[in-house]
Amino acid sequence: MTWTVAPLPRRCTLRRPTTAEGGMGAALARANQRDVEAAHRRLAAVLPGVAEPGGRGPTQPVASEHRGPVRADVDALVAQSTTASGDGSGRADGTAAGPAPVRRLDGEGAVAAGVAAWVDDLAAVWAARVAVDLLVGGPDEAGCRSWEGHDTLLVALAAPLAVDLTAPAVEAAIPGATAAPSGPPLWEGEVAPGHALLVPRGWGMGRRAPGGVWLEVSLRRPRGTDVAAAVVEHLAGQLPFRHTLRWDARTGRRRPSDLFDDPTALDRPLEALDLDRCAREAVAAWRAELTPLDRADDDDAARAAAGDAPAVVAGPGGWVLVDALPPGSTAGHGSGVTVARAGRLVTASPADLERLCGEVVPIEAVADLHRAGLLRRAP
Amino acid sequence: MTTDTTARPALGTLTTVGKVPAATAGPAAPGTGRASPAGWRRPDPDRDDETTLARALATAREASVDRLAAVGVDPQGGTGPALRPPTVAVGADWTELLDGVVAAALADDLGGDDGQPRLLLSAPTGLVRARRAPYGPALVQVGALAAALGRGEGATLVDVAPVSAAVLGLVEDVERVAAVRVRSDLHLGPPSTRPPTDAVVVRLTGKGRLGPVALDLVTDDPGGGIHPALLPVRGSSSLAATAELAVKGADPVVRLAAPGGVWSDVGRRRRWAVGGRVVDGGAMGRLLDLLADGRPHRATAARAVHPGAGQALAALAGDGLLEVTSPVAPHPAAPARAETAPAPVPAPARTAPGAGAEPLVELRPTTELGPDARMPDGELAAVTARAEERATAELRRWLPGALVERLTSADEPAVVASRLVDGDGWVSDAVVDALVEGHDLAGSRLEVARGGDPRHHPPPAALVAAVVPGGRRQVAPGPLLAALDHGTTVIIGAADDTDDRLSDHVAAVETLIGTRSGINAYLSRGPAPGFGAHWDDHDLLVVQVAGQKWWEVFEPTVEAPSRPHTPEPVSWRRTWEATLGPGDVVYLPRGFGHRVVGGDDLSVHFAIPLRGPRADLALRLAVERAAAGSVDWRRDLPLEDDVRWPGPLAVAEAGVDPVAHWRVGVPTRARPGLAPALAALAYGYDGTVVRLSAPAGAVVTADPEVLGLAGHLVRVRPPARDTVLRLLVGDEVTVADLPCTPYGVDPVRILTPLLEAGVLEVRPA
């Protein structure tokens, strides 16, 4: 097998493969479907009821049971976080010195393998960017309160986590663009160790667990504003949008004048686009850039290469077809089919690519995929 | 300065043979702290070939002991492991010295990009914070610091030796006598807020003009675990003087700046370890015999000790082991140079005049800025126009009229070349020296390019000397010149921070174009291609400061190119070429490719990037606003494969002013002085001059009382409006002349919030 791997450049033209198109595209689509279904099955065993494929995300909080090895998670996370953050102090949440009410330990660097696996499954089912923080409650009663622009999964580990929730000010709230939640809590209660609570974005969350430890998994799914941002990025390369804006204090004149004086100047370039196609490309790019938390380490790779333990291709967004590379890009050149996954471009012959799409990684591909950060232990 | 290139030796290549391997140096032996168990030994005065070297080292140590004794530090008779923690208390009053150190340290860059902040706080107020402009230095926000000190809180500035010759000399003496690495930390605030003294070797205290102050010399190596041969090099060199080492007839002063002394190789004659480097050779030995006393020597005398001493001298300088200064400059071990002390003010009162009354001005972060920010009209537009007129008048003092007009012109892009009307503040050796001396290289402020590569790269480690862990990082002039001689172009960012005049010059440019800028200095030496042909994503104002450079400019490949949308290669269609000398200035529009080659001498040019908002910002803001206003656009997308455009997007109706949104985020350039700020907070602003720095002026918001300026949303209550409008002109104004005074409005209620936010400078009248 031969193939090349390169970083995924920005502004590629990307497309999600479908089973309807036949050939290589259909093979990739079937592999994607198989991977999502497998992730969903595993997730249903660890966090029943939390994640359903498709849909538009939760609008109401969802409680669940975390059926993972809670105690092992706590021990591994705390030990690993201490190592990862050097002095163990982690990133302070709140005041910069003195006893913080909550210590927020490292993000993905602190994730024990067991947690990373099911968080990656969440990412695969929802096509979500994920991050994991481990929080340690301070000795006093103070906790933390915030509202987020992403869904948040709270998983209580070492002690009950007291939570109060305030309804969002608007549906699908975005910090900085919509109002903050206000009013009295709609729900107050405790999340017991080994249980989880999924809080949709926009809900106000108070969390308190003196001396306790809990996980916060942030789940950011693609939304309409991401499609809009991708289209703007595309249009920014056109000449009318490359000019420098100027303003004259003496006359109040603005330049380029057509941009400021013509109210439809900004609408016209959008009208010239195939907007549905832009939306599909934006979502495909989103998927192609999703990187995994759970990657094989050197020992895993050695076992997989020896045939002792199977490995799979990492990348919760699945395979994405590359229709065009940005002008001037030297990545992905070579004979064969170029596809994207987990922030990488992979170019290979159709036959080799089809083998990579199998349920487990061929032994001869293990070392290369490991070097590229695309290898994961078979769950 | 004339350089005889035929006589110039290649720097740094002849007689130094590498770093001292830490394993062979090993730790210092317990008990003495001086002997070496492996590899290196002290020069033996009883060996004929080492007598001179041993005597010179003894002389250096005795001189350090004498100087320490003179300031009250008892090095325990000069034998044994002196000056170990715990604290050697020094009872004298060091107020005068420390006030000078405070002034210098507060004007210094805090660094911090490498995760080692140099400002530590004793109280979690969050009010004392660094101001960081794009590519610029991180400075103490003096208004907030003054307020914190007024509340009885404390602050520590880490590693202040590089900004004070007196402290640097003291540190070097302590390191030489105690054979430990020492860091110098300056504490402001009450003694109770100072950190524990476990690691303090020497503490100098005073009750200064800014309240209690202490300078601690601390060690992170109390057991002497670092071999003296690995102790870092001290001293502060002049770039110009270092360059003169290679100039025929020039005679700078050189000093071996290695407080750990010189160590002999156990197994090999004429091989030594010094300052972390291994050196060998007969010429080097004779040179060390002379320089090991730690005193300054004229370069001529040093070259005379051996036929190869000139090359050995150049090699030591190239490795950064020498301090090189001009003959007239004092060296750090000599009596301390006068520090610039702040103006005398009494200790601040806890309650300032006007405190307790409702502030007339309140500042909030711009994250709360809504979509309705607009460029002003009417009265506020007239204020902005006045500010631009003032800036234009200032610019015309040094920049030719054609170039001033070009800065705001919307005409066809074109290269404009001319000469400075007045080179004062631009063209001098002092300007070049200031780039290296006392300029902290935090973060990305030092980069290199070589071999025609059109990209900046991180500097090689040898170019940057981090003297103590967590301390400031400086360019080492010797290695710098060695790198330049090997065809490297060295880029030093934020050069406008080195000189108030340069800062004022750039500030005028900023006001005229309504954005933030700075100066990047490009240093090269010789015609080897350093920085390759490329085009910039912004307009550029170029000033040749020293030496000569040949410029070749190419047409842009497309109209108004921008990254990442325009391919990188230059067009190679030449449109202009010239050799620039000191005082030449060129305006280069965005996208014009250029290739620059230096002359034989040290060549320095300043590049001032002029980056304004682009039209795509209008589209981004309008689309963001339109999308954020519709739940269809805010919702998560369905994940099925037939994703569709979420729905109509009323971009035209969003009506966002992109210029206003750009300008409100343009940060301040203010650098207030601590002493005047403390005095103002304690006693009001009588007899002071103030200046507001909002380079892009102010914008209006949906709330008529709220302006956006310099990265803040500022609520200006009606009694303060005239005063704030007056300040927005941006010139220096006596507080008594502000419009509030005749109407009995207390200026404290207007000025203090601006001072604490760091956008107001206060100076004694």
Task: Describe the structure in your own words.
The complex is a heterodimer of chains A (379) and B (765). In chain A, 29% of the residues lie in helices and 24% in strands. Chain A contains 10 helices and 20 strands. Chain A has a 7-stranded antiparallel sheet with strand order 3-11-8-13-6-5-4. A 5-stranded antiparallel sheet of chain A has the order 1-19-18-17-2. In chain A, helix 1 packs across helix 3 and helix 4 (224-235) crosses helix 7. The model of chain A is unreliable at 81-100 (pLDDT under 50). With 765 residues, chain B is of the alpha+beta class. In chain B, 27% of the residues lie in helices and 22% in strands. In chain B, the strands form 9 sheets. A 7-stranded antiparallel sheet of chain B has the order 18-27-24-29-23-22-19. In chain B, strand 31 (698-700) and strand 32 (706-709) form a beta hairpin. Classes of the chains: A alpha+beta (379), B alpha+beta (765). Chains A and B meet through helix 4, strand 14, strand 15, helix 6 and helix 7 of A and helix 10, helix 15, helix 16, helix 17 and helix 18 of B.
